[in-house]
């Protein structure tokens, strides 16, 4: 067989991707917003994942976050209608919202968000050089595991996405994620939130119809 007899440029088509929607706030976080964040962070408890979570689980109800709330709602709807392509008659709303704080030597265990459809994380304070969020592949393991010499989105069990202040990430709530052990002394503060749907879900003819009010 002659060398270069075949075309080496095989086309890879991703047919069942897991989507993570990302965007940025596009403005500085205001001093009032930072003060409100510190107020809620001051009343936090140590969670299962060895970092801190605010006692208040509905922080977005604070009027200080009115504009931020609009920003989050806009992009949650953008993800639902323009990426997932849900019926526009289906409505989505934020159900819970809380603050996470991770200090040096702390981490957040791998977890997902039950009783939610889309979950999100917004970063009030994060170091773009060191901070990230690790997403675990829904495919738990490969039956056959050859030696990998370069990791990509196609062959990785975990994929780290960098984060920074003002960044928003949205993802289906089933997707497991975690935060690695923080080695630097920069305090990382993020807002996490869950959502749920209203309206008619599924179809009558497939016996999957559910009406949520």
SSE map:
Blueprint: E1 20-24, H1 31-41, E2 44-46, E3 52-54, H2 66-83, E4 91-102, E5 108-111, E6 118-125, E7 132-136, E8 158-162, E9 167-172, E10 177-179, E11 188-201, E12 210-212
Antiparallel strand pairs: 1-9, 2-3, 3-4, 4-11, 5-10, 6-9, 6-11, 7-8, 7-10, 11-12
Rg, nearest Å: 20 Å
Query: What count of structural domains?
Result: 1
Give the biggest beta sheet: 8 strands, antiparallel
Structural class comes to alpha+beta
CATH topology description: Jelly Rolls
Offer a few descriptive terms.
12 strands, 213 residues, four-stranded antiparallel beta sheet, eight-stranded antiparallel beta sheet, Jelly Rolls, alpha+beta
How would you describe this structure to a colleague?
This protein has helices at residues 31-41, 66-83, and strands spanning 20-24, 44-46, 52-54, 91-102, 108-111, 118-125, 132-136, 158-162, 167-172, 177-179, 188-201, 210-212. The chain has a single domain (28-136, 157-212), classed as Jelly Rolls, CATH 2.60.120.620. With 213 residues, it is α+β, with helices and mostly antiparallel strands. 22% of the residues are buried. Helices cover 14% and strands 33% of the residues. The strands form two sheets. Strands 1, 2, 3, 4, 6, 9, 11 and 12 form an eight-stranded antiparallel beta sheet that branches. It has a four-stranded antiparallel beta sheet with strand order 5-10-7-8, with no helix packed on it. The model has no long low-confidence stretch (mean pLDDT 94). The N and C termini lie far apart (66 Å). It is built from two helices and twelve strands. The radius of gyration is 20 Å and the shape is globular.
């Amino acid at each position: 067989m002659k060398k270069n007899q075949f075309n080496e440029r095989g086309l890879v088509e991703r047919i069942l991707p897991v989507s993570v929607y990302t965007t940025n706030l596009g403005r500085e976080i205001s001093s009032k917003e930072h003060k409100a964040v510190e107020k809620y962070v001051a009343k936090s408890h140590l969670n299962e994942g060895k970092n801190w979570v605010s006692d208040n689980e509905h922080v977005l109800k604070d009027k200080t976050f009115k504009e931020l709330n609009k920003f989050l709602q806009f992009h949650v709807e953008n993800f639902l209608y323009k990426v997932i392509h849900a019926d526009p008659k289906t409505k989505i709303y934020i159900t819970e919202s809380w603050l996470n704080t991770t200090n040096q030597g702390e981490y957040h265990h791998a977890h997902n968000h039950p009783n939610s459809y889309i979950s999100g994380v917004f970063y009030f304070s994060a170091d773009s050089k060191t901070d990230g969020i690790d997403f675990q592949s829904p495919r738990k393991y490969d039956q056959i595991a050859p030696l990998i010499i370069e990791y990509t989105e196609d062959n990785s069990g975990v994929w780290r996405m960098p984060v920074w202040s003002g960044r928003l990430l949205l993802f289906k709530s089933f997707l497991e994620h975690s935060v690695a052990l923080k080695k630097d002394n920069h305090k990382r503060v993020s807002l996490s939130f869950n959502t749920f749907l209203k309206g008619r879900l599924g179809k009558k003819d497939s016996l999957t119809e559910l009406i949520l009010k």
